[in-house]
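anyone seen this seq b4? input:
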Amino acid sequence: MLAAETAIRAKRKLTNRLIAAHDAARLRPHLSEDMVLIVGNGELIQGADAVIAAFASQFADPAFITYLRSPQTVELSEDGHRAAESGHWVGSWKGGLEVSGAYMAAWRESRGQWLLERELYITLRD
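predicted toks r here
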């Protein structure tokens, strides 16, 4: 089980780096086809392609810097094929604007890889 938690935390670090690099296309392999994302304002985005399009749109904003997700817990299912991650996130823009809050993510193991299948972000400070 520790290996799965380590793999999920490593995937989170990698996706944080890809977001900081504004590389939407390289995020795609880390998402399940049926990915569902609820962003901080409550908007629902369904499907991996729609999530990637939303990131690409965000990256087109010249003021956008990054989103940093910092996991606090990773909890595995009994069968070891699903996991729940929770933590805090911060979004940063040029000029010092920051938005932050809490998040939860659901991961699914598929063919030896961990994929994000659900993410819920709650804005607590804007």
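Strands lie at 31-38, 44-46, 64-76, 82-93, 98-110, 113-125. Residues 35 and 47 are 5 Å apart (CA to CA). kinda curious what u guys think
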